[in-house]
Amino acid sequence: MDKDTNKLADRIKKILADFLGVDADDIKNEYSLADELHMTASDLTDFVEALRASGIDTSSLVLTEIDSFDDLIENLSNH
């Protein structure tokens, strides 16, 4: 990841950690949002709203392409 992508990943990881009530260090990039982080489709939708509320542009986010935290970062950084 380049520097800008790393900054984005760190910011999103902090938002996700707050959303889930866990420590950001407990979220690994390769973790599946559904399996390791136990997020439901409803949780993911609510999390996208939390990203929007934090000023992150999610307008081109394709939720069907996201399985892991890495997928989320890749999807957000490519759009």
Q: What does it look like?
A:
This protein is mainly alpha-helical. It contains 3 helices and no strands. Helix 1 (3-20) crosses helix 3.
How would you summarize what this structure contains?
The chain has helices at 3-20, 41-53, 69-77. By secondary structure, the chain is mainly α.
> Count of helices?
3
Helix and strand element order: HHH
How much helicity do the residues have? 40-55%
Given the C-alpha coordinates, what overall shape results? globular
How far apart are the termini? Answer: 15 Å
Classification by helices and strands: mainly alpha
Rg, Cα atoms, Å: 11 Å
Q: Into which percentage range does the β-strand content fall?
A: under 5%
Summarize this structure as a short list of keywords or feature phrases:
79 residues, mainly alpha
